[in-house]
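Ligand: cytidine-5'-monophosphate. Inputs:
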Amino acid sequence: MAANAKINLGLRVLGKRPDGYHELRTIFQTISLADRLTISFTPADTVSVTVAGMDDVPDNLAARAAQALFGEMGIGGAVHIGIEKRIPMGAGLGGGSSDAAAVLLALPVLAGRVVPLSRLLALAAPLGSDVPFFLLGGTSLGLGRGEELYPLADFPALPGVLLAPGIHVSTPEAYRALSPTLTDPEGKKRAFEESVREPLVAPLVNDFEAVVFPQHARLVELKRRLLEHGAQQALMSGSGSAIFGLCHTKETVARVVQFEKGEGAVAISLLTRSRYRSQWNRLLQPHTQGDLWPPRSLYAQ
Ligand code: C5P
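Predicted complex:
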């Protein structure tokens, strides 16, 4: 199955909260780029979770998602998760979070249990701030630490370009660098609200660019080139370092991808909520009933 990446169509960090997290305003958007996952489930008395393809990540989020679900479903079983990474890691594209959400969506279906969306969201939030979003997909406002979600009307499936230059940015470190510089939360809130009212009109803003760009001049250069080649918008995603460009036409995308071949540019498109959900239902189809969300097991009593 496919676990899609996300980009942030704007990301404002308002300030540090008493719990150590930061209060955010963002628009999450699923995109066509995706990891490939296989998940197998065998009923058993005890719980066992194995992951293949991610040897370098000991505390794998997808494995933790499976463990959390077994606790919720109150059953045992053996789960094997195979992950073929296509979403660059440490790039602000939510790859690990999406893999974990994929397990939350698929495992109940395979195990023949019904876990309501509200429970899946509650299991997702402690795994990571971006995990709940992947249980919705499409376009969504993200508030709080990113887990408080308000689905928005889908943006059109705009084409774009993604540049992931292999610079790994640590999210906690990026927050630590940004935190002391934060001012004017009210002004940022107002500007963000305006940008939501007229999406994609004004240039998109990501507050992390202010702390990540000074350390990586190459990212400034990549963003500049995307705009120069004809992208309407160009922005770093999440805490970086991937940079995306949105274009009006696929011809512009093809041209930019050609220009930036040496940088490993890939063509992407925004993935609407209805496409995201129908993709999931199609993938799980032999085991699901109807087009429900979250996908519902055919074997559920
Ligand atoms: O929630 P997640 O595990 O993805 O967050 C990783 C780290 O990023 C947190 O431990 C925290 O340091 C920082 N973070 C934050 N505010 C947020 C989200 C993440 O400070 N809204």
